[in-house]
Amino acid sequence: MKNLKDRAMNKKASPQSLLDYGFIKEAGTYTYTKSIMDDKFLIVVKYNELVFESKVIDKDFDDEYTLVDVESSSGAFISKIKEEYQIEIDKIIESCFETHLPIPNQAALVKKYIMDKYGDELEFLWEKSPSSSVFRNKKTKKWYALFQLIPKKKLGLVSVKTVEIIDLRYPKSKQKVFIDNKRVFAGYHMNKDSWITIILDGSFELEELKKLIDQSYIISNR
User: Fold this and answer.
1) Three-state secondary structure call for residue 118
2) Closest by alpha carbon to 81, among 60, 67, 61?
3) pTM for the whole thing?
4) What is the DSSP string of 53-102?
5) Predicted pLDDT of residue 100
6) I need a surface site. Which of 68, 101, 103, 189 has the fewest CB within 10 A?
7) Which residues contact 113 (CB under 8 A, 6 or more apart)?
8) Where is 15: in which H helix or E strand?
């Protein structure tokens, strides 16, 4: 198995480009396969938000052909497999990936969007948690966006890093399907059946966040 994340440093795959190239999406993971060497070997590439990896399968033995990942392995036969393998990985990165840098201070952009669109101001309600704040619907007095600083491990992630999150209202009937515990989590310190949590680190596209904020605001009107 070859980890390709370093090959795509500061790049992000376009979902549509992956599908156009021939990847198949299942349970949030895109998988691509291609036969090489007269259909004797199979390249398998997997991509999602956390993983970008590949391997070569020897179809005669239905097992991974690990020699292609050994730099010291040589010989005409192995070199030919390595060449076809490398050409295909290069084509995938060139065709499906775009330069992507994390959005700077995404939380600030989100807060500005809410204030500009809805005319609401942040409320700081907790003396013991001065970094936490909420936006409240002026008509119903219901919250629709809550911001907090928390350690990532509070969301079940293996990290000691502190991040800013946003809690948003989300339809109960769809909430469990939308949560993947990678980018979208059950509401932190909120009703886990009707709220979701998203880390504001740029891993979730701003335009998609805006749609979720608008949806949360609509729900808060009820």
Assistant:
1) helix
2) 67
3) 0.54
4) EEEEEETTTTEE-GGGG-TT--SHHHHHHHHHHHHHHHHHHHHHEEE--P
5) 66
6) 101
7) 210, 213
8) helix 15-21
Give the CB-side neighbour count of residue 159, counting CA atoms within 13 A: 10
Fold of 106-220: Aspartate Aminotransferase, domain 1 (3.90.1150)
Encode 71-87: b = buried (16+ Cβ within 10 Å), e = exposed.
Answer: eeeeeeeeeebbebbee
**110 is written with which tokens?**
């989100």
What residues does each domain of the chain span?
A: 2-99, 106-220
Residue 92: Cβ-neighbour burial (10 angstroms; 0-12, 13-18, 19+): buried
Give 73-131 pLDDT, tens digit per residue.
989 999 999 999 999 999 999 999 987 655 568 999 999 999 999 999 999 998 888 88
